[in-house]
Amino acid sequence: MRVLISGAGLAGPCLAHGLRKNGHDVLLLERDPAVDARAQGYRIHINGDGDAALREWLPAEAYEQAVATSCVAGGGVSMAGPDLRHVTEIELPPEARGITVDRLTLRRIMLRGLTDSIRFGAGFSRYELLDDGTVRAFLTDGSTAEGDLLVAADGFNSGIRLQLVPHFSVTVHSTRLIYGRTPLTARARELTPPQALEGFLGVVGPDGRRLALAAQRFRRNPADLGLPAADDYVMWGVAAPAAVYGPGFFELGAAELLGLAAETVADWHPSLSALVRLAEPGYLVPAGVQVAERPELWPPVPVTLVGDAAHPMPPAGISAGVALHDAGLLASRLVPGAPLLDAVRSYETEMLDYGFAAVATATRNHAGGH
């Protein structure tokens, strides 16, 4: 079986590894021109299901490297007000436990084992179902690729989903976010609240403004494993209603985004704005919030969805784990050799159930500030 996977974030490579080690032919199609062409996220938490998928479907050495470079285990999730005086710890369910990693490092680990199965600079344009039951993907570099199955792992704005499920409903919320990271220097350590050094801290204002803080402290430097070196840092995200950030938000440059993020929390505890101002300019990213409504099952075809392409949800620390669980579940349905469309339909039915339960959870947590 030949599987085309559009998108080489985390779920796509996890699926590729699982299929390859079970004898299937895989081609990863990535729109970026290279592995490190742009910022690829910061510290992320992968829940128990996602961690189990990595453990089962990655080569053992790759999973061991992911654990070795993961974040030093520390505290849990805490919430505070803008003055940082009253901190509340949030009790998490057992299934939330897993592994916390630097997203870029994990992606590098997975992709360096797939160098002969990935085509960079090949974004998705459209697909065509062929008479023999296979599928042809038309790519932005002018080429095509054919396979038995096309998998969309291409994120929130999936072009494959748009063609496969044109009635898919996605609501764009008015909240805007600025993500960044601050090197964990001695000064940054002084400014970072203890709860964020050890775990995750959410700071919630009364007017829709929020700040998320979490330190990434590597167990081992990725350089020890032959990867690009990486220093410890504090990941942060400043969220506010769109009216606060004003028009032209997504066209702002790094310096403007950094100034806007710092100004947004300037009237909060002074350490917070100071910490934001020490951020690395190359890691400033503007983002929106999208929430999907569960669609009806579409007619079975050799095209399917995983991760944010299947169930966009607000940032709440669970989407990466759900996406990897998708990849593992789809691999488990494809590997035994059941008829392809039966295997895909079995996956889609289960995925929509837990995927949109996760969307509901993420939406509640985002609305409640945790």
The run of helices and strands is EHEEHHEEEHEEEEEHEHHEEEHHHEEHH
> Low-confidence segments, ≥5 residues, pLDDT <50?
none
How far apart are the termini?
Answer: 42 Å
Shape descriptor: globular
Our estimate of the beta-strand percent is 25-35%
**Averaging pLDDT over every residue, what do you get?**
94
- Class of secondary structure makeup: alpha/beta
The helical percent reads: 25-40%
Rg (C-alpha, Å): 20 Å
Number of DSSP E strands: 17
Largest sheet, described in full? 7 strands, mixed
Tally of separate helices:
12
List the helices and strands and how they pair.
Layout: E1 2-6, H1 11-20, E2 25-30, E3 43-46, H2 48-57, H3 60-68, E4 77-80, E5 87-90, E6 99-102, H4 103-111, E7 118-120, E8 124-129, E9 135-139, E10 144-147, E11 149-152, H5 159-164, E12 170-183, H6 186-191, H7 194-198, E13 200-204, E14 210-216, E15 233-241, H8 242-245, H9 254-264, H10 270-277, E16 285-292, E17 303-305, H11 319-334, H12 340-368
Parallel strand pairs: 1-2, 1-11, 2-7, 4-13, 11-17
Antiparallel strand pairs: 3-6, 4-5, 8-9, 9-10, 12-15, 12-16, 13-14, 14-15
If you had to describe this structure to a student in words, what would you say it looks like?
The chain is of the alpha/beta class and 370 residues long. Helices cover 33% and strands 26% of the residues. The longest helix has 29 residues, at 340-368. The protein starts with a strand and ends with a helix.
Key terms:
370 residues, alpha/beta, seven-stranded mixed beta sheet, five-stranded parallel beta sheet, 12 helices, 17 strands, 33% helix, globular
